[in-house]
Amino acid sequence: MLFKCKINYSIKHKNTRSVAELMNEKIIHTRKDDHIRINNEEDVQSAVPNEFDKFYFEHQALPELNLVDIDTSVNIFRKVQYAPLLISSMIGGTEQSHELNARLARAAQHFNIGMGVGSQRIILQHPETNQFFNLRTYAPDINLFANIGAVQLNNSVTFDDCRQLVEEIGADALILHLNPLQEALQSEGNTNFAGLLSKIESLCRQLPYPVIVKEVGWGISAETARRLQEAGVSAIDVAGAGGTSWSEVEKYRMTSEAHREVAASFRNWGITTAQSIIEVKENTNGLTLFASGGLRNGVDVAKCIALGADCCGFAGLFFRAAMQSEQKLFDTIDQIIRGLRISMFAASAGDVQELKNKRLQRR
Hints:
Layout: H1 19-41, E1 55-56, E2 74-76, E3 79-81, E4 85-87, H2 95-111, E5 114-116, H3 121-125, E6 144-149, H4 159-168, E7 173-178, H5 180-185, H6 196-206, E8 211-215, H7 222-231, E9 235-237, H8 246-251, H9 257-264, H10 273-282, E10 288-292, H11 298-307, E11 311-314, H12 316-324, H13 326-346, H14 352-356, E12 361-362
Parallel strand pairs: 4-5, 4-11, 5-6, 6-7, 7-8, 8-9, 9-10, 10-11
Antiparallel strand pairs: 1-12, 2-3
Helix pairs in contact: 2-13, 6-7, 7-10, 11-13, 12-13
């Protein structure tokens, strides 16, 4: 059972935050709680077909392996994970989201996989909300990634702010998420993406932590990947189309039917995860590559690794499982890892590096 966020917006004395600040706080909390509710109650699946079924491994009837010896471990940012999995950034910053994130963090610790937190922008405006992002209590050893929208670099967020976000939660890296389409659809969205690349480059030079740039569900193109690597990012998360459609999520927040129709028209927008992996891999050199967006099971994970990914993220699938119960979340992650191990076994790949060297066939 998740808890409703209770916030007192009354002004009690002259040192209290301004009315504008309080209203902004209310908007942010409402939006975050709306996202939880909508993802849990509505069909927000992208209409873009999942392309993973277009690929298949050449089945090895004689794998010459013992299933119990399959090694799924990977080294991500100098930490060894049990499996190439990431609990992708979702939500955070409210009481309602904290229990959900605590479940996710405990699962990440149990399985020794990575986790990204939701956008921490709210911390910079309301430092007291940092308590809702403090997940090291539940997951002291995992790869933990801080997170803020890249567009905030055009909205007075500084290098020192970014460093603070990483260090206050004991994170291992910083995610800068790119969501121009989502911001354009939000009535309160930040849409000034002009000159952003140079600020990302400056941040990469100054920040003593790896910088990961991720989309939120519409994919990264070859051109964008090349420019991001030249800017100095340490990793890209393609977050392609095929999973949760944030245009659909925003559609359910709208009260205007005309605006809802505009949002609905983007349900089939974006580059698929599979295509984005291929494009980014072919147009970068040695860059750590995360794959997320519409992955369903361990077989999809294996295919993403063979296409060129180093780690694979899940958001919606883990979100829905965690909303049901912590045990359901544990079972879901276990099933994905089991499916990955069996895929590796049947493809005759004893470890993840061997899996990377397997060529997928197209149907």
